[in-house]
Design a protein that fits this description.
Layout lengths: L1 H16 L9 E3 L16 E6 L5 E8 L7 E6 L9 E4 L17 E6 L5 E8 L6 E6 L11 E5 L12 E5 L5 E8 L8 E6 L8 E8 L7
Antiparallel strand pairs: 1-13, 2-5, 2-13, 3-4, 4-8, 4-12, 5-6, 6-9, 7-8, 8-12, 9-10, 11-12
Length: 221
Amino acid sequence: MAIGFFGLALFLFLTFDFDQGSPSSATAFSSSSSASQNVEVTYGTVLKLMHEKTKIRLHSHDVPYGSGSGQQSVTGFPNVDDSNSYWIVRSTPDTSAKQGDTIPNGTIIRLQHMRTRKWLHSHLHASPISGNLEVSCFGGESESDTGDYWRLIIEGSGKTWKQDQRIRLQHVDTGGYLHSHNKKYSRIAGGQQEVCGVREKRADNVWLAAEGVYLPITEST
């Protein structure tokens, strides 16, 4: 019931947030839905990213790190039912990509945190627990830089990003892969996992697009 409620809230959010495409045709899927197979992730889609190995969702909230950059913290949240784990898939400002376009392997994208409107970000600050690359949320609607750029790497033979497809996100500036592990915070986000960047491909830096509101593909005219 709660997931359905948030799906409806997201539907209304998309209706007011975008002036392109047909948000009224958006479809909500959970990660366990059989209908989710072969659903394309398009620009404008609002989704949760699930860490394949530990099943947490990529999460942020308006709580700063107590070390490093002091920017808004990013963690792994253990429960599926959480409204602070939604991210909007955006293009970079220097492309002609538009809402509803599919996203090919190798594309550089941005992820905007739905609740706070900040961008998934990384840099050379050390992450609080493991000392790897810190991952934070930074900027806002009109404030974004290359620290917000992530390259989509699809595992396997897929050519465009689909729901439930194994992917990696490699940070453009640092080369670090979006990563998590089973080490948990005791203070800033008790019980939540550290999310960080590491420069090696590992089993712990594979993610899947899970619950969300997936926008339909924009038809060419």
